[in-house]
Specification:
single chain, 319 residues, alpha+beta, Adenine-n6-DNA-methyltransferase TaqI, Chain A, domain 2, 2 domains, 4-stranded antiparallel beta sheet, 15% strand, disordered C terminus
Length: 319
């Protein structure tokens, strides 16, 4: 292994290596590692092994270390199992989406033929910014980092219109953002935006914006098509530009063809896929809760703030 990865072996019966590993993930442990890692910022900081071995930590009796490590392992197992379930649900949703968006699966009571259209037929691509907007109007700013790789808006920043009126991509509530540059497109970056300040937003020039025509399609239905494997995969094949700076052209988005049912059937499809999303998001919230619980437990158990069965912690010279 690289010399940048020093190895340490725990003394049998004195130290549970899982306990030590967890300890150096706490705020206190990370701070101590920083003190023993001289050098500049970034990769220039290197652990001083001699100083590391002189670090003093709170070390409970060995059996207590094992119990603490087991408790934290239980949280890790719960997190891993829930993440596995999320992945399974996401794969199931992908399969369902593929079948619903192509008409392979139809809902009872719907038998009208679907029409093949281009995005340009049912939406405006990269519409212009609003006119006569007061420069003090507060709008939302969305950068590429503010959208996730599962095509969700995660954060946004409030700014006056005067700061973003030039040099940024305009959009409004219920518009669809599509990352145009590699590897953001391939990684799934994008969003169906809503809840913008005053219903208006500006963002990275690396976004395409698609605005559904209300009489033709629902934004949510169009959004699901733009996050489909077919749309993203074909978009990757149609990229232009040099390596590392390849982008999906506007013409690809406008000309992308897909089948579309009646508005009533679109609504049913949206509801079904939205239910699937809600289930996935519920488990994601559960994972976040478990991670916060684990973080709190680690901080309390590994620093002696809380003791299991009242055993005494001792400060030792770990060398």
């Amino acid at each position: 292994a690289s010399h940048r990865f020093p190895s340490f072996i725990a003394k049998a019966g004195i130290c549970d290596i899982r306990y030590i590993h967890r300890y150096f993930q706490t705020h206190q442990g990370i701070w101590q590692l920083g003190l023993t890692s001289p050098g500049g910022a970034g990769r220039n900081k290197t652990l001083n092994q001699s100083d590391f071995l002189d670090i003093q930590i709170l070390l409970p009796p060995f059996k207590e270390q094992e119990r603490i490590a087991d408790i934290i392992d239980t949280w890790d197992e719960a997190i891993a199992l829930t993440n596995a379930l999320i992945k399974a649900l996401q794969q199931r949703k992908k399969g369902l989406m593929q079948k619903l968006l192509t008409g392979e699966i139809r809902f009872p009571g719907f038998d009208d033929a679907w029409e093949e259209v281009r995005i340009d037929d049912v939406a405006r691509v990269n519409p212009p910014k609003p006119k006569n907007l007061d420069e003090n109007t507060v709008v939302s700013f969305v950068g590429m980092a503010d959208v996730s790789e599962d095509a969700r808006l995660t954060t946004k920043e409030s700014r006056p219109y005067s700061e973003v009126s030039s040099g940024f991509t305009p959009f409004r509530d219920m518009d669809i953002l599509i990352a145009k540059i590699t590897p953001c497109l391939e990684n799934g970056k994008g969003a169906l935006v809503n809840g913008l300040d005053n219903g208006l937003g500006f963002g990275s020039t690396e976004f395409h914006v698609v605005r559904a025509k209300a009489e033709k399609t629902f934004p949510e239905f169009l959004y699901y098509h733009t996050v489909s494997h077919n749309f993203r995969g074909r978009g990757e094949l149609n990229m232009v530009g040099s390596a590392g700076q390849k982008r999906v052209p506007t013409d690809y988005v406008r000309a992308y063809r897909f089948p579309i049912p009646t508005l009533a059937e679109q609504k049913k499809i949206i509801a079904s896929l939205s239910d699937a999303d809600d289930g996935i998001n519920l488990y994601k919230l559960y994972v976040t809760e478990l991670q916060q619980q684990k973080k709190g437990l680690m901080q309390q158990l590994l620093t002696g703030q809380v003791q299991v069965k009242g055993m005494d912690y001792v400060r030792v010279l770990h060398k």
